[in-house]
Amino acid sequence: MMLTELRCTVQSLEMDLDSMKNLKGSLENSLRWVEICYALQMEQLNGILLHLESELAQTRAEGQHQAQKYKALLNIKVKLEAEITVYHHLLEDDEDFNLVMPWTALTPCKPSKRPPPTREWMAKWYLRPTTP
Question: Which residue intervals define the domain IF rod in the entry (predicted)?
Fold first, then answer.
């Protein structure tokens, strides 16, 4: 009777062992499948990340280019405004006019004791080539 019980117990334990082996195999297969899925997702996300990084670099380069263009245009604008001011003064024939560029004038100009410059001199002076 005891031998029969032990055989039943052994048989039951062997069935449990087989069941556990099958469960282990099933879980290992599931683990491999999950690892493969996550590896594919990581590849996709890495591809997206690389694409976004390249777009960011391109956008940054375009932004720097736009900033350089803006600075150049702003410099041109300042120079044109100064030139317009000079021409306005030339046309008005203002006696107290002293040639001072607006971007360099920090204080009001003091009238000089010299006679005002001629239009020809001012045009030559203002339109002379500048060295960088």
Answer: 1-98
- Burial pattern 94-114, b for ≥16 Cβ within 10 A else e, equals eeebebeeeeeeeeeeeeeee
DSSP code, position 20? H
CB 89 within 8 A of CB 97: yes
- Answer yes or no: are the C-beta atoms of 112 and 98 closer than 8 Å: yes
Task: Place 115 in a pLDDT band, splitting at 50, 70 and 90.
Answer: low
Query: CB burial class (10 A; 0-12, 13-18, 19+) of residue 86?
Result: buried
Q: Would you say residue 27 has pLDDT above 80?
A: yes
What are 17's two structure tokens?
Answer: 């062992």
The predicted model scores a pTM of 0.48
Write out pLDDT tens, residues 66-93.
999 999 999 999 999 999 999 988 888 7
CB neighbour list of residue 98: distance below 8 Å, 6 or more residues apart? 109, 110, 111, 112
